Amino acid sequence: LYMAISDVLHLNINLQNCFGVTFDAASAFSEHVTGVGIRILEITASAIQTHCLIHCVNFAVQDVVEAVPPMRDFLHLSNDPLVFLRSSPKRCAIVHKIALQLDCPQTHIIPLCPTRFSVKYSAFSGMYEQFDVIIDALEEISIQTN
Predict the structure, then answer these.
(1) Using alpha carbons only, how large is the chain's radius of gyration in Å?
(2) How far is 125 from 134, CA to CA, in rounded Å?
(3) pTM, whole model, 2 decimals?
């Protein structure tokens, strides 16, 4: 992985001019012996390795939401039907069928990402667009199981 990144960077970037590297917590990047960050630090010792700032913002927002009970409860309550519908190929097929019947352009359920709040927006937007589909799918599943 380091070699592939190094090859691309050497096209336009001198790694000795690198003053910082930032990654998520994936071991291929952040592992302290053979990670990409350590390999770059071997080339330019003045570089500083930090955790990805966007990940840090997402973790901070996640912590705030978890600390505010109405927000936490809303996220958990909203996520339950999405997880329920997505956790079965049969239920996914029901959602797809109903979405087609209702001419809904989005025919699958977008999951709520547990850490990335920018993804939560698209999931909630999709949930709003699919509200009738979700209700009809839950009703059909309820009828089938009774």
Answers:
(1) 22
(2) 13
(3) 0.60
